[in-house]
Design brief:
This protein starts with a helix and ends in a 22-residue tail after the last helix. Helix 1 packs parallel to helix 5 and helix 3 runs parallel beside helix 4. The longest helix is centred in the C-terminal third of the chain and has 25 residues. It has 5 helices and 2 strands, in the order ααααββα. Helix content is about 55%, strand content about 5%. It is globular, with a radius of gyration of 17 Å. It has about 160 residues and is mainly alpha-helical.
Length: about 160
């Protein structure tokens, strides 16, 4: 599962790089779907991941409101800091905890740690698809969504 988080983080990094060539007005332009704009969707992806990871750990959610005057650099720095904290947790996570129940303050349901981790992975992949559609609507090539060729899975074949 850690490889899929790494995949998401690599793709997210590539989207941040992609965005460096786009005017801020275009990154903030209101769009149909996603969280409403390219920059807000990148913020939303990071925020949701961080909130759920904190929830799994029994930590309170940290509400960081998105501001329309945020820069790409600010959103990326926030995402990077949250990824670093998430990596620390995921490096200690055990599949033995897959079925451990979790409740969070922003949702009435009770979920398992494994269910939440898989949700977080799928959530980001879903939004990356939305970013790809918006890129194509702008006449630009989106970041590749390929998992293959990113070096995430060691080659187990011997020569």
């Amino acid at each position: 599962m850690l490889q899929l988080f790494r995949y998401n983080w690599l793709v997210r990094e590539e989207w941040f790089e992609w965005c460096k060539h786009i005017p801020i007005e275009e990154l903030l332009r209101s769009r149909t779907g996603g969280a409403g704009s390219i920059l807000l969707t990148l913020f939303h992806i990071a925020d949701v991941e961080y909130s759920w990871i904190r929830g799994i750990q029994g930590k309170p959610d940290i509400l960081v409101p998105f501001e329309n005057d945020w820069t790409l650099t600010q959103v990326k720095a926030l995402s990077d800091s949250w990824i670093n904290e998430t990596k620390l947790f995921l490096n200690t996570w055990s599949h033995d905890w897959d079925n451990e129940p979790v409740t969070v303050s922003w949702n009435d349901g009770c979920y398992t740690q494994g269910e939440i981790l898989r949700h977080v992975i799928a959530h980001e992949i879903h939004h990356v698809g939305q970013l790809s559609v918006w890129a194509r609507e702008m006449g630009l090539t989106p970041v590749s969504a390929n998992v293959i060729g990113r070096g995430l899975f060691p080659n187990r074949m011997s020569s």
